[in-house]
Amino acid sequence: MTVPWALVDGWTVTRRDLMHWLREPAPVIIGLLFPVLMVLMFGFLFGGAMAIPGTADYTEFLLPGMFAMTMAFGMEATMIAVSTDAQRGVTDRFRSMPMSPSAVVVGRCGADLLNSVAGLVVIIGCGLLMGWRAHGSVGATLGAVGLLLLLRFALLWVGIFLGLVVRNPEAVGAVQILVWPVTFLSSTFVAPATMPGWLGTIAEWNPLSSTAAAARELFGNPGWGGDSWIAEHAVLMAVVWPLVLVAIFFPLSVRRYQRLSR
Predict the structure, then answer these.
(1) Domain for residue 27, yes or no?
(2) Is position 237 within any domain?
(3) pLDDT > 90: percent of the chain
(4) Which of 36, 72, 95, 219 could form a disulfide with 134 if both were Cys (CB 3.0 to 4.6 A apart)?
(5) Cβ(177)–Cβ(183) under 8 Å?
(6) 97 lies in which domain range?
């Protein structure tokens, strides 16, 4: 089983998922608009009450964090899609075909990553309409976008693995409950310095916080100015955290897929 074979099979599965979205676009459209609703809610409804130490414009602080949170939100849709395919027997049908063992999970990852690119474009466009701007260089701006997509790529594998483990779509809801506290317990909306000491430390070490802080730095937007090691090395950790997650959950996902129905 060569790498080209795996890539070709993976692209076939990606196309299958994309065609499914074209036939039923409503869930995709809702998924694209939900982050926009979150941005408008926190930016306009709650933004006037938010205060970030040393930061005058809350919108400039908020938007990079929301970009990072959008990359995390998509993990739930991945879990539901994977568990639904497993429950309906689609996954077993794929396993009976002469194809690469990693093709199904790689294909799902490819389709969801393309969807995430579209989602990031939509929410960046929303941010521009709200007055947010990237003040960094073109290279730094592209680097920030790359780090956001790298986080999404890593979290896709977490979602694929959880979807294969929790094969009942209804039970996925129980796992989804954990996604919200993890995403909110970060520097997305407020500075960890405003939290109780122990809680702020947890928020600082949240991988989402590293990507949000790195995006703010590369976009040239105001950050929260933490002086801890993790805060001072946000760009480095925005690379390290996703690589660690991929190194853990990619092999786990492939192994779990190969062992289904055993």
Answers:
(1) yes
(2) yes
(3) 27
(4) 219
(5) no
(6) 3-44+54-258
Question: Could you tell me the pTM of the whole model?
Answer: 0.87
Is the Cβ–Cβ distance between 87 and 167 less than 8 Å? yes
Cβ atoms of residues 260 and 91 within 8 Å: yes
- What contacts 53, CB < 8 A, 6 or more positions away? 191, 193, 194, 224, 225
d(CA 122, CA 114): 13
**φ and ψ of 52, to 5 deg:** -110, 125
What phi and psi, each to the nearest 5 degrees, are found at residue 15?
-65, -40
Angstrom distance (rounded) from CA 245 to CA 247: 5
- Reported confidence tier of residue 242, pLDDT bands at 50, 70, 90: very high
pLDDT digits (tens, 9 = 90+) for 153-190: 999 999 889 888 876 666 667 777 777 788 888 888 88
Q: Compute CA 235 distance to the chain's CA centroid, rounded to the nearest angstrom.
A: 17
In-domain check, residue 49: no
Distance CA 102, CA 164 (A): 13
> For residues 255 and 261, is the Cβ–Cβ distance under 8 A?
no
Residue 205 within a domain: yes
